[in-house]
Design a protein that fits this description.
Helices cover 81% and strands 0% of the residues. It has 5 helices and no strands.
Length: 93
């Protein structure tokens, strides 16, 4: 896991475990699983649209949003990026 992903995941888990007023992550988690997953879906659509219609910079920007929201969805379920990596490893061995 990259340092950036590790730090982001740690921040998301910290917000989940110790909510902080004014935090977007805390607000999103407080809205519940359905809202978190809705955001993942919205961001996925934006990645697809940017991939088809926008310059590379916009595609990267939207991809970053998708990764963030996916990490929030994993944290909401008590999962971590390492669980995704383990599944990818399993598929390629």
């Amino acid at each position: 896991m990259s340092d950036v992903l590790h730090a982001l995941q740690a921040t998301i888990q910290e917000r989940r475990d110790h909510p902080r007023e004014g935090s977007y992550t805390c607000r999103l988690l407080a809205e519940g699983r359905s809202r978190v997953l809705q955001k993942v879906g919205e961001e996925a659509v934006e990645v697809v649209l940017a991939g088809a219609l926008a310059p590379d910079e916009q595609f990267v920007y939207e991809s970053a949003d998708l990764v963030y929201h996916l990490l929030v969805a994993l944290a909401e379920r008590g999962l971590r990026w390492e669980d995704v990596e383990a599944e990818l490893r399993r598929r390629f061995h």
